[in-house]
Amino acid sequence: MLSKLIKCLSRKHGTRVVVLIDEYDAPVTNNLSKLKLVQDNREVLRDFYFILKSCDEYLRFVFVTGVTRYAFMGLSAGLNQLNDLTLDENFAGVCGFTIDEFDDCFKKRLSYCLNTLTTKGRIAPNSTLPDLRSQILKWYDGYIWLSF
């Protein structure tokens, strides 16, 4: 049914289709304590990506996001020509937060967070907001945090 939809859309509009998949890994990561369900969900996902692979000539691109690396999920056989943009500075604004976005989005919560974390001993008692931001960046090691 998915392949039919992709082909129909491509033919109707005379262009290749873009598929956007957010949190592709949620059916697995949300059920880690249920091994059988995780295995079943991985099979469903694998089948889903094989369908996309079979529609390659109708697809412009497929953009996939998730918290785990695609290869770790064992699904990469379902698609080819994968490009991991996670650590690519050219796509930092797409795959992560810029420093300005981080500061803007979380400015109201950072003071509360700093107070809570110092009180609970998670960071040094004399830490400042820049120290907190630096610590948060360490916690999200490997994620893109660039200034533009």
Describe the fold and architecture.
Helices cover 49% and strands 7% of the residues. The protein is elongated. It is built from six helices and two strands; from the N terminus they run αβααβααα. It has a two-stranded parallel sheet. The longest helix has 21 residues. The protein starts with a helix and ends in a 9-residue tail after the last helix. The chain is mainly alpha-helical and 148 residues long. It folds into two domains: 83 residues; 45 residues, no CATH class.
Describe the SSE topology.
Elements: H1 2-13, E1 17-21, H2 26-29, H3 35-54, E2 59-64, H4 92-95, H5 99-119, H6 129-139
Parallel strand pairs: 1-2
